[in-house]
Amino acid sequence: MRLLFFVLCLLLVAISASAPPLQPGSYAKSCPNAELIVRDVMKKAMIRKPRSGASVMRLQFHDCFVNVVTGRCCWMILRPCLGRNSLYIIIFASRDAVALSGGPHWEVKLGRKDSLTASQKDSDDITPSPRANASSLIDLFAKFDLSVKDLVSLSGSHSIGNGRCFSVVFRLYNHSGTGCPDPTIEPKFRQKLDKLCPLGGDGNVTGDLDFTPHVFDNQYFKDLVNGRGFLNSDETLFTFPETRGYVRRYSEDESEFFRDFVDGMIMMGDLQSGRPGEIRRNCRVVNDPPPVKVVVRGFQDRKILSR
């Protein structure tokens, strides 16, 4: 899983900077059951497939069609609440994924609009590699006025979920081009990873990101302190001096981690891109899609995307 993909992609769907400020309870009167519906769908999904919570947290692109869980939420909510935007559904679902996994609960600020476009390039530009080091992560977060503390606390999203072998094999067999394993990996943990992710094996095999992959807690930070971080972008937070102190504090004080994580999530939700948006009638497609040229038997025709 790519580090913090779920929170950084909020930048792509935030409303214009000139719009009214975001605030909790925006739809309390017009769509009072929205949060309950999302919570119910998430609860059922996580019972069927426990990793669904982590998937929602890290795979929330800037439209509902990316994930089947949020896609179902979109339909179930927009059906009785037509005219309400779909983005807040994804944000509700991410918050609930944390809470239903044993983590904190917080009020979600509402009022965002859905994006008019989808850009893979934009996503790639703000998505750190699992090979990233703490220095590059600090620089990335600083571009959005987010602090070192925000970086470390929000990295705690890896308290739940799994990562794929293709994201870790370089640490095991050719760290920094040396042809050797990453020396920061605890030896017994490295043996476990060697067995899970052999050289030349299936890169799509998954491993737990921490020792309690279905519980949102501070075990992730305890594992980093003990050299058991799955991704380089995780373990680097403890090996780098500027971030190490926060990792150690969160490993010792789960309540402090929860407080800072919530603060970071709220700050990320407040970030605004300055791009225009809309409230979609169908959360899978923009309201008035542009015409698309279609070539049939050598002739050009025009077709409007279905809604």
Automatic annotation (TrEMBL):
Molecular functions per Gene Ontology: heme binding; lactoperoxidase activity; metal ion binding
PANTHER family per the UniProt record, alphabetical: PEROXIDASE 17 (PTHR31388:SF2), PEROXIDASE 72-RELATED (PTHR31388)
Residues at the catalytic site: H62 (proton acceptor)
Gene3D superfamilies noted in UniProt: 1.10.520.10, Peroxidase, domain 2
Residue ranges of every copy of the Plant heme peroxidase family profile domain listed in the record: 21-287
Binding site for substrate: P128
Organism whose genome encodes this protein: Lactuca virosa
Record InterPro entries: Haem_peroxidase, Haem_peroxidase_sf, Peroxidase_pln, Peroxidases_AS, Peroxidases_heam-ligand_BS, Secretory_peroxidase
Species lineage: Eukaryota, Viridiplantae, Streptophyta, Embryophyta, Tracheophyta
Signal peptide extent: 1-19
Protein name: Peroxidase
Keywords annotated in UniProt: Calcium, Disulfide bond, Heme, Hydrogen peroxide, Iron, Metal-binding, Oxidoreductase, Peroxidase, Secreted, Signal
Site residues by UniProt (Transition state stabilizer): R58
Cellular compartments annotated: Secreted
UniProt GO BP: hydrogen peroxide catabolic process; response to oxidative stress
Disulfide cross-links: C31-C81, C165-C197
Required cofactor(s): Ca(2+); heme b
Sequence positions that bind Ca(2+) 1: D63, V66
Record's function text: Removal of H(2)O(2), oxidation of toxic reductants, biosynthesis and degradation of lignin, suberization, auxin catabolism, response to environmental stresses such as wounding, pathogen attack and oxidative stress.
EC number in record: 1.11.1.7
Any one GO CC term of the record: extracellular region
Primary location: secreted
Note accompanying the cofactor annotation: Binds 2 calcium ions per subunit.
Keyword DNA-binding: no
Recorded coiled-coil stretches: none
